[in-house]
């Protein structure tokens, strides 16, 4: 049984006040808060078990290496990857996507080759492909988003042409909450011989993910949204794609031998992990994912679906609010605007009530451009949020309207 009171008790920051009001943290789309077990794991790692990994034969190095490398299997289980070696550690989704851009796409794509994107992508899944456009003449093909925030998988598949070499798509929009049927996208793209890269930064937070069932080639996740530390993350890479990749960065750990005249590389995934990694961050990510799996992703998804449904109903009752993205099956992420009030003003008023939201472009300028906006206010919910916090948000929006009407 999902016990929201117990879950909330696991997150110490939720007990604090902001501006004399109980904290209502609705900026989870940017970064989620951390449960005590993650905080304790980080403290223990630094206080009692810290050493560099892989390179030492002493006790502390062996302990750190065992815990660090054990996370690879935890992530594989979280994503249902077939092998732990399908998981490459990164500092987050941004590094994971850049790894694909530099290690897989850059040596394979030529001028005139195409990458298919949607306008709903986060900048992390746009800018690396713009690098290839600027530097190699690669063409970016854009799939539009519906007025209700819908992202049609068939439209993505139909955008694939004879020169398309990659489809790069989000699993869940960080602005609209729209969930993309990436399984259908992968099936359609593979039928045309095109691999699929998925930005799972939001999808893995809100949905059970099975990369084998989805059939995707690349799936990137970031730790700080998954109740883990910032600076942690990973990317699933199908073995066939790993074999086609060259190393992204060079340094220690990713090599087999180094001489004056030549180098040989370590086998994947180590081939793509140069230098001293984020050891403690990665250990913390493993604990965070264990925490999520203990709650069960199905329970988390059901709880957040209830919040999304309730928030959608309450927001629809406010005739002074416009919500961008109104799909009934969306994740609990709401972008909204209010006539007469700038999103920054809304955010400031809400903050005075102890409510943390985000205002701006949310690193998704093409998407906001498509809605004719320069900014919006975003409330994004997590496993520890409640219906009472939805009500607090609604009350605060009424106050905003009274101030700016």
Automatic annotation (TrEMBL):
Superkingdom classification of source: Bacteria
Gene3D superfamilies, A to Z: Aspartate Aminotransferase, domain 1, Type I PLP-dependent aspartate aminotransferase-like (Major domain)
Gene Ontology MF terms in the entry: cysteine desulfurase activity; lyase activity; pyridoxal phosphate binding
GO annotation (BP), single: cysteine metabolic process
Domain annotation Aminotransferase class V: ranges: 24-393
Claim: Acetylation is one of the keywords in the record: no
Claim: Transferase is one of the keywords in the record: yes
SUPFAM superfamilies: PLP-dependent transferases (SSF53383)
Keywords of this entry: Lyase, Pyridoxal phosphate, Transferase
Reaction catalysis annotation: (sulfur carrier)-H + L-cysteine = (sulfur carrier)-SH + L-alanine
Annotated EC: 2.8.1.7
Co-factor(s): pyridoxal 5'-phosphate
Cross-referenced NCBIfam families: sufS (TIGR01979)
Family per similarity comment: Belongs to the class-V pyridoxal-phosphate-dependent aminotransferase family. Csd subfamily.
Alphabetical list of PANTHER family matching this protein: CYSTEINE DESULFURASE (PTHR43586), CYSTEINE DESULFURASE 1, CHLOROPLASTIC (PTHR43586:SF8)
Function: Catalyzes the removal of elemental sulfur atoms from cysteine to produce alanine. Seems to participate in the biosynthesis of the nitrogenase metalloclusters by providing the inorganic sulfur required for the Fe-S core formation. Catalyzes the removal of elemental sulfur and selenium atoms from L-cysteine, L-cystine, L-selenocysteine, and L-selenocystine to produce L-alanine.
Entry protein name: Cysteine desulfurase
Source organism (scientific name): Ketogulonicigenium vulgare (strain WSH-001)
Classification lineage: Bacteria, Pseudomonadati, Pseudomonadota, Alphaproteobacteria, Rhodobacterales
Gene: sufS
């Amino acid at each position: 049984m999902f016990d929201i009171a117990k879950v909330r008790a696991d997150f110490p920051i939720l007990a604090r006040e902001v501006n004399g009001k109980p904290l209502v943290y609705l900026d989870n789309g940017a970064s989620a808060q951390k449960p005590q077990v993650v905080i304790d794991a980080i403290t223990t790692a630094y206080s009692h078990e810290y050493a560099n990994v892989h390179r030492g034969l002493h006790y502390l190095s062996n302990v750190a290496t065992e815990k660090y490398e054990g996370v690879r299997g935890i992530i594989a289980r979280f994503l249902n990857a077939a092998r732990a070696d399908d998981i490459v550690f990164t500092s987050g989704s941004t590094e994971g996507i850049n790894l694909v851009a530099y290690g897989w796409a850059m040596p394979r794509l030529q001028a005139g080759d195409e990458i298919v994107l949607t306008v709903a992508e986060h900048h992390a899944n746009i800018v690396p492909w713009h690098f290839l456009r600027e530097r190699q003449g690669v063409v970016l093909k854009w799939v539009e988003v519906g007025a209700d925030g819908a992202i049609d998988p068939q439209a993505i598949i139909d955008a694939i042409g004879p020169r398309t070499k990659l489809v790069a798509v989000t699993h869940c929009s960080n602005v609209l909450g729209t969930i993309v049927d990436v399984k259908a996208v992968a099936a359609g793209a593979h039928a045309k011989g095109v691999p699929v890269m998925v930005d799972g930064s939001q999808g893995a937070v809100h949905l059970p993910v099975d990369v084998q069932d989805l059939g995707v080639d690349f799936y990137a996740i970031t730790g700080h949204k998954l109740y883990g530390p910032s600076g942690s993350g990973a990317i699933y890479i199908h073995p066939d794609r790993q074999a086609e990749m060259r190393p992204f960065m060079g340094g220690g750990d990713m090599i087999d031998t180094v001489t004056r005249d030549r180098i040989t590389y370590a086998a994947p995934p180590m081939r793509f992990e140069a230098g001293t990694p984020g050891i403690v961050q990665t250990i913390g990510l493993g604990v965070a994912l264990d925490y999520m799996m203990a709650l069960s992703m199905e329970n988390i998804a059901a709880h957040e679906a209830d919040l999304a449904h309730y928030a959608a109903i309450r927001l629809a009752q406010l005739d002074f609010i416009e919500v961008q993205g109104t799909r009934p099956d969306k994740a609990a992420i709401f972008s909204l605007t209010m006539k007469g009030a700038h999103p920054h003003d809304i955010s400031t008023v809400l903050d005075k009530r102890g409510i943390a939201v985000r205002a701006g472009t949310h690193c998704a300028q093409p998407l906001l451009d498509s809605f004719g906006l320069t900014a919006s206010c975003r409330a994004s919910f997590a496993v520890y949020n409640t219906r009472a916090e939805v009500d607090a948000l609604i009350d605060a929006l009424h106050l905003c309207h009274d101030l700016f009407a």
